[in-house]
Structures are given as C-alpha cells and as structure tokens.
Amino acid sequence: MRTFWRRYGLAYLFIAPAFLGMLLVHYGPMVQGIYMGFLDLRLQTLRLYLQAPFVGLENYREILLNPESTFRAGFLYAVRTTLLYTLVVNALNLSLGLLVAHLLNRPLFLRGLWRSLILLPWVVPSYVVGLLWGFMWLKEGVINHLLVDVLGLLPQKPHWLIGPLTFVAIVLPTVWRSWPFVMVTYLAALQTIPQELYEAAKVDGATPWQRFRFVTWPMLRPVTAVLLLYGLLGTMYSFNIVYMMFGHGAGYPGEWGDLLMTNLFRNTFGLWNFGLGAAASTLYMLLSLGLILFWYRVFREDLRAR
Fold this sequence. Notes:
Elements: H1 2-36, H2 58-64, H3 70-104, H4 111-123, H5 126-136, H6 142-150, H7 165-190, H8 195-203, H9 208-236, H10 240-245, H11 260-270, H12 274-305
Helix pairs in contact: 1-12, 2-12, 3-7, 3-9, 3-11, 4-7, 5-7, 7-9, 9-12, 11-12
C-alpha cells in the first residue's frame, strides 16, 4: 500500500474532488430514486418522505403484472414507442450524416458555406424546435400547406398530431436537429483517412462501393460506435421536443407520440405518484443499461483497436 500510494497517490488526490462531486450530484440522487421505488410515496406522504410506507416490490408489480393498472398500459406503450423512435432516429441520423459528409468531403463550390448552413439546426435549442414544429404540424400549418396546396402530394390535409402520424411528427424534428452533428463528426473522420489507402485500392481494381466497404467503413467504425452511443442516450432520454410540441406537457401526445420520459414526467409530477414513477424510472435505467451493454459487445473490438 505504501508503494502504491507513493506511485499513484497524487493522481487519486486530483481525482477525489470530481469523485466526491459525482457522489453528491449523481450517485446519491440515483440511490435515493431507487429507494423511492419501494415506497408508497404520494402527495399526502411527500412531506413525510422518511416515514412513507414501505411497500417492497408493489410498485414494480403494478407496472409489470397488474393488467388493470392504467399506468402499466401507458408505460408499455411508451416503451414500444421509445424503442422504435430510438431505432428510426439513429438509423436516419447515421445514414443521412454519412451521406452528406461524403458529399461535403469532395471539392464543392462554396463548401464552407454549405457546411455552416447545414449546422444551423444543431444550434437551435430543442425547446424551440419542439415549439416551432408543433405549429408547423397543425392541420392548417405550413407543412400541410406545402404538401397539399403547393405540391399536391396529398389529397387532403392530415392531422399529424393525432393517431399513428404522431410518430412521424416527433421523429422528423429530432432528425432535423440532430443529424448535422453526425455529419460534421463523420466529415472530420473522413478527412483523417490516408489517401494512400484509396490509391492502393484503385490500383487493385476496387470499385467505389468496394473502396467504401473495405477502406472507408472499417476506418469509420470507431467513430460510428461513439456516435451511436450518444445517439442511443440522446433519443432514449428525449424529452424537450415532445414536451413542447404538445402543449408544454399539458397535452397527451397519444400512444404513438408518448415517449418514456414524457410518460414518466406526466405520471410522476402530474399525478403526484412519486413511488410508482421512481420504480418505472429504475426499470427504464435497467433497460438503458442493457442496450448500452449490447452496444459495447458489438463495438468492443473497434474501441480496443482505437
């Protein structure tokens, strides 16, 4: 221990303030939230938090096993919508970002201007995005005006904020705001790939698709892993856009628009059932952890090679 402390003691002293800060602002509240999931913590017991009745796994049974629970039905719908939302948004972000990065990596007239213009949606706050797109999706909004009155692509103006079309209404604003970050990250990664690799592939007779498959994509896999991790965390915990789009949280977005974060917020702080909301949050944390572990298993070798 004396040798270990002499060698690494100063480093641990430097790390100690950050570690204590994490305990205070992150791990402490997380443990408290898990503990709240075992309590019958409602509005009437909120002031007596430490004396709230301990109910064990009753909140978890209410969410997972009680077919008559109104919370359970909405929670399961939110799980389905969130997982599908996460899959679609990240697939579109990675595909669109990689495609545009390839285009901007070539000699292009006013390339710097195009890069700057494409990044503009990314700097718009998500609250503003949700508010603006909420107005645009209205039946008499600008989107229906373009699709029906100007372009004639639809026979009538649909209700984008009601029914299954709600899923489209929350996906497109999210992609619109988030894909420029993916693009600029891919663009930076493309510019680090040695041109000698492409020249050698051309000498060997590789087609453009083969050069992408065997040269570009292997070099981009570590970057893709990091982008996918941030994308998974960002979309699974997405809140602001849906919250602002549907009446600042006062409106119910329906089963195809209700994400887990908006569902938990509405049921916890709207119905004042903090014990049930804490239990649902714990289950969501475990689901997120499972997805992250799967992500690490898929990209483990790429991250080690990096």
